[in-house]
């Protein structure tokens, strides 16, 4: 398994040499959404706290790095960390309120949605942050400004982010932290009775997850050169973030990546073909149908199914 | 602050609130009976709007006459969604139910996008341009009619729930008295009809609001979120809470637009929502805590 | 010296219902005490109060010489008191050994050590062959023992058992009684809620009887069984609880001798 993983990483490192720019762009999205899905997976998958507001962390991270770069000339490489720290702080606030006040299920979902929406509305109305139009970043192609002439640089950064999040998730999974999270997902009261400080571990999961997601905001901003509050803070982005790990298998290490490898190309291809005919939204119909099918037929997601099918027991 | 403006905001908010109430009553009925949150609620409502749009543009039926057809169509759709999908996951964990309905929402919203395109639509009604002045404030006739019909429909639903056997069974289910369900009632039928009625509520609400609210496929998402706000504020599963909550949220947003600025109006209801979630999660009229 | 657990004047009210009223009880080191009473007598509420799941309206809980006031359940567990649940709460999708590890990790942060400890407990309770199975696939009797195994893995000095016998057949009950006795023999004190009177009578050194949230009797098993207030409490409320649960015949004026 370790060797297979290493071979896959080496393959992905060598891959851009064989790809045209359209394929490279698709891989960038696969890695990026794989990364966001993996970051979400820590709190949403392992710990089972269904956040549908993770876009807020992308937004906070992206806006922080972009503002620091535009206003203060601070390199996004530092801004990235600053944004992630702020995203983690927001995650801590949401987590504290949600977990301290014992919000579960639908109530926790709504709390996370409400915070993301409040961020979206606030940012849309703050002129210093570009208001509803958002922020635009002028292209310089300077690597110190997180900008690259060669698209392959973004490929490697996105791959690096995905591997980083996966590495963090793998570390967590093997430790007491991760084992506790999987139990918290199943039954919090039973955990408490057995001596698990559930609040502390849920908070930790939320903070790690929002920190990583915040890192992704900088990539988003400096890959697309723009940030609009309705897209980076919006519910649709949150849905994009959660749908891949859920279809791939939430609470598993490879689920989010598998989900992104399934959904992203599917989405991009259908977007491309239907979009040419002026038909929008086709890829989201596909996502919706897949989501329904997964809930009904593979509620644990594709990875556990495949792992069973091909003889590897998923770690319980 | 100009008092007239405040009065005007209050009135417009109240009149618009009828639609919010109808929409939220539908959501809370579905939740109350089967503990499933209909994440596709707003998207169903948008389909009600587009049906009114089709009726008006293709057949020349005024939405104020055609809302019954829209409600009937959504009733059937709701029934189908319940029988085909929701029925299979009524006992599944909440997360699974949320994700399933999210899938339905994605399909509904984007099939509307595929069918009607992204441009905002609006249904024309001869009533929509008329206004009547009462001293310093004016009443938009369209809003008044929308409000009146929405209130009448909510009242009819109330009568159904309190005066008919099927309605009483539903209320018993919503009050968590499963005893009533176990004893000689076809649970699946109650569930299906409840889902159908919940969807019919937004079918009608969508048609009624179509002349006064320009809409496009993504409108569904914000309507879903608004109806979640309302039912949480009013108390999940509480019919009275949904009704009062609808008026309350509409007035709050309307006043928010007057006192702050229009683009900040949703901030008021989200702040209200967060406060309710934290300090009174059972809502204003709810008995039970989550 | 203060007893291991000392509960003084504990009360809890839910709206109009006085669930626990002025309850006092002690459990000494290595002692087995049973808490019995008809359904709805407040036993499970008392457990929830003692283990930190509910906050009492008034009263004191002392454990190992310190007050438990304001402590969360996991902190109570860390001090050495662990409860099981009447309605068993296994982590259904986790394997049996993972379930037990959750208990063991509190005192062994290293998952490998925790797993070794969990396997030892499973071995002891005869669940080792099921270690790799998902907990959701166990039979009722096995789940009861899993609940016990998880609690044991936290290395408690006091074990609160909430109806671990209910629903088991005679053989299974006897086996569990022996296992509990063995646990107790290693010095673990036990407070148990139990309806299976045969088990209570053979295990408990002392019995506390609750009715309507109040303590109505306390003493050695043979004394309590003959106490008229106890008999009345059980028989006077047949619709709710029935007579003493292991007793098949209604209406007899005193419990059978083999209780």
The residue fraction in helices of chain A comes out at over 70%
Number of E-type strands of chain A: 2
SSE ordering of chain B: HHHHEEHHHHHHH
Question: If you average the pLDDT of chain A, what whole number results?
Answer: 92
Which ranges of chain A are low-confidence, i.e. pLDDT below 50, for 5 or more consecutive residues? none
The global form of chain B is globular
**Per DSSP, what share of the residues of chain A sits in E-state strands of 2 or more residues?**
under 5%
What's the end-to-end separation of chain B, in Å?
40 Å
Radius of gyration of chain B: 18 Å
Which structural category do the helix and sheet elements of chain B fall into?
Answer: mainly alpha
Radius of gyration based on Cα positions of chain A: 19 Å
Strands across the major sheet of chain B, in which order? 1-2
Output the number of helix runs of chain B.
Answer: 11
Instruction: Please state the oligomeric state of the protein chains shown.
Output: heterotrimer
Instruction: Tell me, briefly, the overall form of chain A.
Output: globular
Biggest interface between protein chains, with counts per chain? A-B, 44 and 46 residues
Mean pLDDT across the residues of chain B is 87
């Amino acid at each position: 398994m370790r060797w297979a993983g290493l071979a896959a990483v080496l393959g992905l490192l060598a891959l851009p040499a064989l790809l045209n720019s359209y394929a490279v762009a698709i891989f960038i999205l696969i890695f990026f959404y794989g990364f966001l899905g993996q970051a979400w997976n820590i709190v949403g998958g392992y710990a089972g706290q269904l956040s549908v507001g993770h876009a807020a962390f992308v937004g906070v991270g992206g806006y922080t790095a972009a503002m620091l770069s535009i206003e203060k000339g601070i390199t996004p490489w530092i801004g990235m960390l600053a944004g992630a720290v702020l995203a983690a702080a927001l995650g801590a606030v949401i987590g504290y309120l949600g977990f301290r006040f014992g919000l579960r299920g639908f109530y926790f979902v709504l709390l996370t949605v409400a915070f993301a929406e409040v961020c979206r509305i606030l940012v849309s109305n703050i002129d210093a942050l570009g208001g509803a139009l958002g922020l635009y970043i002028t292209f310089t192609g300077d690597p110190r400004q997180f900008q690259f002439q060669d698209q392959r640089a973004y490929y490697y950064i996105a791959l690096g982010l995905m591997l980083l999040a996966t590495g963090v998730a793998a570390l967590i999974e093997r430790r007491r932290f991760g084992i506790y999270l999987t139990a918290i997902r199943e039954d919090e009261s039973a955990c408490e009775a057995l001596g698990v400080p559930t609040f502390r571990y849920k908070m930790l999961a939320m903070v790690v997850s929002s920190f990583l997601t915040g890192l992704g905001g900088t990539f988003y901003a400096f890959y697309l050169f723009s940030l609009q509050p309705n897209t980076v803070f919006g519910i649709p982005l949150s849905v994009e973030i959660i749908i891949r790990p859920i279809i791939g298998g939430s609470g598993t290490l490879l689920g989010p990546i598998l989900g992104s490898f399934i959904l992203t190309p599917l989405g991009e291809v259908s977007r491309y073909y239907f979009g040419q005919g002026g038909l929008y939204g086709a890829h989201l119909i596909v996502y919706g149908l897949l989501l329904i099918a997964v809930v009904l037929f593979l509620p644990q997601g594709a990875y556990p199914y495949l792992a069973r099918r091909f003889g590897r027991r998923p770690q319980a | 602050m100009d008092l007239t403006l405040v009065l005007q905001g209050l009135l417009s908010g109240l009149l618009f609130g009828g639609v919010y109430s109808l929409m939220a009553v539908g959501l809370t009925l579905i939740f109350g009976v089967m503990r499933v949150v209909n994440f596709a609620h707003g998207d169903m409502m948008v389909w009600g709007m587009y049906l009114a749009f089709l009726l008006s543009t293709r057949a020349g039926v005024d939405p104020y006459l055609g809302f019954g057809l829209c409600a009937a169509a959504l009733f059937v759709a709701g029934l189908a969604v319940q029988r085909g999908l929701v029925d299979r996951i009524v006992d599944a964990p909440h997360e699974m139910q949320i994700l399933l309905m999210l899938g339905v929402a994605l399909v509904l919203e984007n099939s509307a996008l595929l069918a009607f395109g992204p441009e905002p639509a609006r249904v024309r009604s001869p009533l929509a341009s008329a206004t009547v002045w009462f001293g310093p404030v004016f009443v938009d006739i369209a809003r008044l009619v929308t409000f009146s019909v929405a209130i009448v429909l909510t009242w009819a639903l109330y009568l159904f729930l309190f005066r008919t056997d099927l309605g009483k069974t539903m209320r018993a289910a919503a009050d968590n008295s499963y005893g009533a369900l176990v004893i000689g009632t076809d649970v699946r039928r109650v569930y299906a009809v409840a889902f159908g009625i919940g969807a019919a509520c937004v079918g009608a609400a969508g048609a009624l609001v179509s002349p006064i609210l320009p809409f496009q496929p993504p409108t569904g998402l914000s309507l879903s979120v608004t109806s979640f706000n309302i039912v949480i504020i009013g108390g999940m599963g509480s019919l009275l809470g949904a009704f009062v909550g609808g008026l309350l949220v509409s007035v709050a947003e309307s006043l928010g637009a007057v006192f702050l600025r229009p683009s900040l109006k949703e901030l008021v209801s989200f702040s209200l929502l967060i406060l309710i979630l934290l300090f009174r999660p059972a809502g204003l009229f709810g008995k039970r805590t989550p | 010296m203060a007893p291991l657990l000392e509960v003084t004047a504990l009360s809890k009210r839910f709206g109009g219902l006085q669930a626990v009223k002025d309850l006092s009880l002690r459990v000494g080191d290595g002692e087995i005490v049973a808490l019995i009473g008809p359904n709805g007598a407040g036993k499970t509420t008392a457990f929830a109060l003692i283990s930190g799941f509910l906050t009492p309206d008034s009263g004191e809980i002392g454990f190992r010489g310190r007050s438990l006031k304001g402590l969360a359940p996991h902190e109570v567990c860390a001090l050495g008191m662990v409860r099981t649940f009447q309605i068993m709460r296994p982590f259904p999708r986790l394997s049996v050994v993972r379930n037990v590890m959750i208990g063991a990790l509190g005192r062994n942060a290293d998952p490998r050590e925790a797993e070794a400890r969990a396997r030892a407990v499973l071995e002891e309770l005869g669940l080792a062959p099921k270690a790799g199975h998902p907990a959701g696939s166990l039979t009722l009797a096995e789940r009861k023992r899993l609940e016990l195994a998880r609690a044991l893995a936290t290395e408690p000095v006091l074990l609160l058992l909430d109806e671990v016998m209910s629903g088991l057949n005679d053989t299974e009950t006897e086996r569990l009684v022996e296992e509990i006795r063995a646990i107790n023999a290693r010095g673990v004190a036990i407070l148990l809620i139990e309806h299976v009177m045969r088990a209570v009578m053979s295990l408990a050194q002392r019995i506390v009887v609750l009715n309507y949230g109040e303590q109505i009797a306390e003493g050695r098993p043979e004394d309590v069984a003959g106490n008229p207030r106890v008999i009345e409490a059980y028989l006077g409320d047949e619709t709710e609880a029935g007579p003493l649960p292991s007793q098949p015949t209604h209406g007899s004026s005193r419990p059978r001798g083999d209780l």
